[in-house]
Amino acid sequence: MGQGIDVAVSTVILALLPTGGEPGDGPGDEPGSGPGGPRLHLPLVRRTREPHRDCWALPGGWVRPEESLADAGRRTLAETTGLRPSYLEQLYTFGRPDRSPTGRVVSVVYTALVRSREAAAAQEGENVRWSVADDATGLAFDHDEVVRYALWRLRTKIEYGSIARHFIGERFSLSQLREVHESVLQRRLDPANFRRAVEASGTVEPTDERLTGGRHRPPRLYRAVPAPHGAAPPWEGAGPPA
Amino acid sequence: MGQGIDVAVSTVILALLPTGGEPGDGPGDEPGSGPGGPRLHLPLVRRTREPHRDCWALPGGWVRPEESLADAGRRTLAETTGLRPSYLEQLYTFGRPDRSPTGRVVSVVYTALVRSREAAAAQEGENVRWSVADDATGLAFDHDEVVRYALWRLRTKIEYGSIARHFIGERFSLSQLREVHESVLQRRLDPANFRRAVEASGTVEPTDERLTGGRHRPPRLYRAVPAPHGAAPPWEGAGPPA
């Protein structure tokens, strides 16, 4: 064809990290913002070449002719940050004709939710930083818009089981799950309403286990229900999407 | 870059149409299959050039350098079928390195649900046909996989308000809504369970109106609740997604 369109990938990797400069200290991350609990952070990479040299951007790069889109996402993420999430979910493809100043670039964006321990694998330094996701602005290309969309999708299509599995772990109390949702949404949730919504969702189920500790009535632990149809596109079968 | 990857768009347009050859009579559409009610159909286009000449394929084509991805989807759909749905939602981007025999092609796929009256705008003929979606196999490229994925997404991420709005209209009884879902899912649904699930979903709400007709207790009419956050990506704001 020779149509003059290039294909890139970018990744939005979200983790709930404590606020206050550790480990995130990226652009727009004002210490002390937020109510003090953990907030959604994402790794950004400083560009070392034009266009937008020295600007912060999402990790990413060009798709090689022989690799799949998801493989390109995994490779460029690992090359720039050292992160290797177990599963990347395709988020959206951005293709506005004017989104790059040096020619037409279509960018396929992948996303993943990772736990704070996994997030520590990102080699922070002069050119890689974790930023509070809501404060990440002034990024290269249309990456501000990409980040806004990733956050909008996470918050509006919120799925209790998936959030729990990716951000907490296999077993969790309903209070732990609610606190994670409060951090994601950045607002308080009514415990009784939250419990009803979670139970009606059918995406988490009670186990026979209870939280350990010295309490008189330790809270019951729940787990995410495996998605009945497989929650991932059939050909990506590697795991559950975010 | 000159990376040798071309960018195409394809569209999966789904409509609930009566079975039995009217208006769908596409490849794989065996008259008499299904339980007799309406079934999901999609328009297919016969390819007039290589590769896969004479095979049926999803409507689509190359993205022009100056047009957005959604505009390319709208243009190629109108050019090949005459269809102009009010809103196209981006479904997924398919990019397996071997998906086209003549070079690397990344295809951004858009989808829309249309009512049967809108579907009639497709100029059926030798090279355009409506096919029963579940029976559409043997298509060009990886389009079998694309159709399977579109159906999987519609059926697993089913959203009562959206299905109602796109397939029925502004006002509907719960029985009408259930019948549409039965056609989409191709199985019977228990009326009481369906009513509970719909009411719990918060995506439809009762109106003060009732179905007209001579019945003693005409059923109440419902309507779709507008999505609180805007259900579409902010920059696409044209309307609600499928």
Automatic annotation (TrEMBL), chains A, B:
<feature type="compositionally biased region" description="Gly residues">
    <location>
        <begin position="21"/>
        <end position="37"/>
    </location>
</feature>
<dbReference type="InterPro" id="IPR054105">
    <property type="entry name" value="WHD_NrtR"/>
</dbReference>
<feature type="compositionally biased region" description="Low complexity">
    <location>
        <begin position="226"/>
        <end position="242"/>
    </location>
</feature>
<dbReference type="InterPro" id="IPR036390">
    <property type="entry name" value="WH_DNA-bd_sf"/>
</dbReference>
<feature type="region of interest" description="Disordered">
    <location>
        <begin position="18"/>
        <end position="40"/>
    </location>
</feature>
<dbReference type="InterPro" id="IPR015797">
    <property type="entry name" value="NUDIX_hydrolase-like_dom_sf"/>
</dbReference>
<dbReference type="Pfam" id="PF21906">
    <property type="entry name" value="WHD_NrtR"/>
</dbReference>
<dbReference type="InterPro" id="IPR000086">
    <property type="entry name" value="NUDIX_hydrolase_dom"/>
</dbReference>
<feature type="domain" description="Nudix hydrolase">
    <location>
        <begin position="4"/>
        <end position="155"/>
    </location>
</feature>
<dbReference type="InterPro" id="IPR036388">
    <property type="entry name" value="WH-like_DNA-bd_sf"/>
</dbReference>
<dbReference type="Pfam" id="PF00293">
    <property type="entry name" value="NUDIX"/>
</dbReference>
<protein>
    <submittedName>
        <fullName>Nudix-related transcriptional regulator NrtR</fullName>
    </submittedName>
</protein>
<feature type="region of interest" description="Disordered">
    <location>
        <begin position="200"/>
        <end position="242"/>
    </location>
</feature>
